[in-house]
């Protein structure tokens, strides 16, 4: 199980990696392993804005459908189009090629409230 | 004769197993005064007597073995090859339930996959589901799908007034309570060009029927223009249609429709006094995740052998719950199987022949009625298997008189349009021989006097 130390995490298993005043968002290795083979990822459109905690999309696997929640507030400036034809990238490389959206952060201080890799790992291992 | 197969010994064994001495003990919670009420039923009858009584009741119904019918308007009489019923009544198909466990349901799954494939071929579309309840609910599902493809951000659905009135009613029933506005069908004058002009940034779909409710065929360039207008605004185009006609006319996939749907009853299913029927539904691959209904897919098993499974199940409401496109989670498996067998036994050429016979017989009949004094053919446009006539007396009255001739006339249109009391929608199919068509014309002449 991979826990990317460059990322912060929320309790609904999304990760966020800050890059200046932008951030990239996806779901964790733990999340993709729980979901199993992902067949469809529904992502928002560029220009859409969401608050922290708001639902920005959903992911469907063979056995279930799960909502995606914003770890921080922002406006969507890029969406991973690869996932349209290759949703399995989320399973194969959840922190890299399986990235979902890139946002412009509107309240960078929100990141401080998120779990770091260590704390998130502890959370996941507690669930096991 | 007892119809209950349990012996007294078996009964005693079961009672002992649950620790009870008599059947009466199982009803102790029911107050004695209510335990064995007197019910005024006639004495039991033998199997022979029961059959006689039921047969007498059934004979009270007018049926198509005893009457000639020229009624269409959404459900059509076609010849069903006997092989359909032979295969359908095989226990393996007849009693099979939903194929949740692919390891024991390959037969059912493959049959549904073949059905889906044939619907794709007929409609020219990329994906078809395992069927809906009927054509009207298929339209409702089409509207819901289009709404969801546009992510619920648009509110307007344009429906052609030439779609079957009951289909439009069902679409409204399904979308009530949702922020959806159905427009366009309030005026019969709204033809496809007028509907195209209504499309705006708030429109998520426009739906048309071809052949339409009145039997008319729309020229393909008019359909293409509509598709172009809709796609310019990113709205989806839904085409409703009698699948028999698809053997004769260009299919929706060819002119860019996003969703093709309709009533597949004409393909191998009897009229059954109104049902069960089945709605066919086909769409583009890119939109498949917003399509409702069961979907069978082809795959390979662990040994690399071809197999079939229910697929993309996370779309369905028992998994996606309130975020699903629809709450439908079933299909009309047996009816879909009948359709698949019908299409297989007719083949492409056979189906084409059926469609041509319908077309030619309807045109022969229309011309013959037009020549009758007091009647005239209202339909001036090209039509498939039905057309509108004007009668010298109210159509409903003509129909009552026709029943005395053992004939079921066409649809009296004042059923849906009160101003059309003298109008009738008449249908002819490959079922009608020339003497039958002539007999109808003759009867129309007689009842007009």
Describe the structure.
The complex is a heterodimer of chains A (128) and B (449). With 128 residues, chain A is an alpha+beta fold. Chain A has a domain of 86 residues: RNA polymerase II/Efflux pump adaptor protein, barrel-sandwich hybrid domain (OB fold (Dihydrolipoamide Acetyltransferase, E2P), Beta Barrel). In chain A, 20% of the residues lie in helices and 34% in strands. Chain A has a six-stranded antiparallel sheet with strand order 1-2-3-9-8-5. In chain A, strands 4-6-7 form a three-stranded antiparallel sheet, with no helix packed on it. In chain A, 37% of the residues are buried. The model of chain A has no long low-confidence stretch (mean pLDDT 94). With 449 residues, chain B is an alpha/beta fold. Chain B has two domains: 111 residues, Aspartate Aminotransferase, domain 1 (Alpha-Beta Complex), CATH 3.90.1150.10; 261 residues, Aspartate Aminotransferase, domain 2. In chain B, strands 2-8-7-6-5-3-4 form a seven-stranded mixed sheet, with helices on both faces. The longest helix of chain B is centred in the last third of the chain and has 38 residues. Chains A and B meet through strand 4 and strand 6 of A and loops of B.
Concise description?
The complex is a heterodimer of chains A (128) and B (449). With 128 residues, chain A is an alpha+beta fold.
Q: What are the main properties of this structure?
A:
heterodimer; A: about 130 residues; alpha+beta; OB fold (Dihydrolipoamide Acetyltransferase, E2P); B: about 450 residues; alpha/beta; Aspartate Aminotransferase, domain 1; Aspartate Aminotransferase, domain 2; seven-stranded mixed β-sheet; four-stranded antiparallel β-sheet; about 35% helix
């Amino acid at each position: 199980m991979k826990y990317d130390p460059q990322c912060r995490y929320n309790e609904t298993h999304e990760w966020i990696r800050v890059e200046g005043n932008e951030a990239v968002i996806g779901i964790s290795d733990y999340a993709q392993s729980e979901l199993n083979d992902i067949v469809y990822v529904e992502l928002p459109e560029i220009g859409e804005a969401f608050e922290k905690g708001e639902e920005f999309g959903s992911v469907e696997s063979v056995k279930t459908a799960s909502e995606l929640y914003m770890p921080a507030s922002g406006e969507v400036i890029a969406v991973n189009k690869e996932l349209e034809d290759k949703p399995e990238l989320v399973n194969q490389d959840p922190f890299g090629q399986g990235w979902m959206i890139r946002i412009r952060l509107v309240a960078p201080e929100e990141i401080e409230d998120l779990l770091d890799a260590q704390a998130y790992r502890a959370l996941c291992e507690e669930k096991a | 004769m007892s119809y209950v197969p349990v012996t007294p010994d078996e009964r005693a064994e079961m009672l002992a197993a649950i620790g009870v001495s008599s059947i009466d003990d199982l009803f102790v919670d029911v107050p004695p005064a209510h335990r064995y009420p007197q019910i005024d039923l006639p004495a039991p009858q033998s199997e022979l007597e029961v059959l006689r009584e039921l047969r007498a009741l059934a004979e009270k119904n007018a049926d198509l073995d005893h009457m000639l019918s020229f009624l269409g308007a959404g459900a059509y009489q076609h010849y069903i090859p006997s092989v359909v019923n032979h295969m359908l009544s095989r226990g393996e198909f007849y009693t099979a339930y939903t194929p949740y466990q692919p390891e024991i349901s390959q037969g059912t799954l493959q049959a549904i996959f073949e059905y889906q494939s044939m619907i794709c071929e007929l409609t020219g579309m990329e994906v078809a589901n395992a069927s809906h309840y009927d054509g009207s609910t298929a339209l409702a599902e089409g509207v819901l799908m289009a709404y969801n493809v546009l992510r619920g951000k648009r509110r307007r659905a344009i429906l052609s007034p030439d779609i079957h009135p009951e289909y439009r009613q069902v679409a409204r029933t399904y979308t009530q309570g949702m922020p959806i506005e159905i427009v366009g069908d309030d005026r019969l004058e709204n033809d496809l060009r007028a509907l195209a002009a209504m499309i705006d940034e708030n429109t998520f779909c426009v739906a048309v029927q071809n052949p339409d409710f009145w039997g008319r065929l729309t020229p393909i360039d008019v359909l293409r223009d509509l598709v172009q207008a809709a796609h310019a605004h990113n709205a989806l185009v839904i085409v409703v249609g009698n699948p028999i006609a698809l053997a004769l006319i260009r299919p929706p996939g060819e002119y860019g429709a996003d969703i093709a749907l309709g009533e597949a009853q004409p393909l191998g299913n009897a009229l059954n006094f109104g049902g069960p029927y089945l709605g066919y539904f086909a769409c583009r691959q890119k939109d498949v995740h917003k399509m409702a209904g069961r979907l069978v897919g082809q795959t390979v098993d662990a040994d690399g052998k071809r197999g079939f499974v229910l697929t993309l199940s996370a779309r369905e409401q028992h998994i996606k719950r309130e975020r699903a496109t629809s709450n439908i989670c079933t299909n009309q498996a047996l009816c879909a199987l009948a359709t698949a067998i019908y299409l297989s036994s007719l083949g492409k050429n056979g189906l084409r022949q059926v469609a041509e016979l319908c077309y030619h017989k309807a045109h022969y009949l229309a011309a013959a009625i037009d020549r009758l004094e007091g009647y005239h053919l209202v339909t001036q446009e090209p039509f498939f298997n039905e057309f509108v006539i004007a009668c010298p007396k109210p159509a409903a009255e003509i129909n009552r008189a026709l029943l005395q001739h053992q004939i079921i006339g066409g649809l009296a249109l004042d059923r849906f349009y009160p101003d059309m009391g003298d109008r009738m929608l008449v249908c002819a199919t490959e079922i009608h021989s020339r003497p039958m068509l002539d007999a109808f014309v003759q009867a129309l002449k007689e009842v007009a006097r």
